[in-house]
Specification:
By secondary structure, the chain is mostly beta strands. It has 2 helices and 15 strands.
Length: 191
């Protein structure tokens, strides 16, 4: 297997400026007051219909199946942006700081189970609800049965050149997807 993850970075971008480089996809936006899940299309943040206040946004991840853009505010409303992709041609020319490429010996698809269960879908957004956290809306259709959702990921496994040990060199977010909950069988839990 020969998969290469390319990364490039640029400092000094504001949140609105970094959106111009964002892939069309899901956005996780963190402010001091809220955690927002939104979409980015053509550099614009779209919510499920509610107006969202992005004042104070300090941490951003925008991703799809092909790329992930990360931005972290470092001070005075400006921050560092990093773009990760397997397509070297997708790296912006003005992201001049090139990080070492990850030459993966393997990739591993993964999932993180999200809190809550589907309370229904409207206009392509599903409300995941639980008593502990309330409702979180995600931009994907999740049927009520089984009703669970996961954040899908891809891990890039590399080999240490000196010692030969394999390790997860990077993980990229891909999207949201319906997922079953697999309960362990009785014989799997017996000791």
């Amino acid at each position: 297997m020969n998969v290469v993850l390319h990364t490039a970075a640029r400092d000094g971008l504001t949140f609105p400026e970094v959106l111009a480089y964002a892939p069309d996809g899901v956005a996780l936006l963190i402010t001091p007051w809220r955690y927002h899940v939104a979409l980015v299309r053509d550099g614009q943040v779209l919510s499920r219909g509610d107006e969202i206040d992005l004042t104070g946004t300090f941490d951003v991840r925008v991703f799809n199946e092909n790329a992930e853009l990360r931005w972290l505010q470092t001070g005075d409303g400006r921050g560092r942006a990093v773009l990760l992709t397997e397509d070297a041609a997708a790296l912006p020319a003005d992201f001049t700081e090139r990080h070492g490429d990850v030459h993966a010996i393997a990739v591993q698809e993964g999932r993180y189970l999200l809190w809550g269960r589907s309370a229904g879908t409207s206009d392509g957004w599903t409300a995941l609800t639980t008593e502990r956290i309330g409702a979180v809306h995600i931009p994907v259709d999740i049927p009520r049965r089984p009703g669970y959702a996961a954040l899908t990921t891809r891990e890039y496994i590399a080999r240490d050149p000196r010692h030969g040990n394999a390790y997860v060199a990077e993980e990229r977010l891909l999207g949201f997807a319906p997922t079953p909950i697999e309960r362990p069988r009785a014989e799997d839990t017996a000791s």
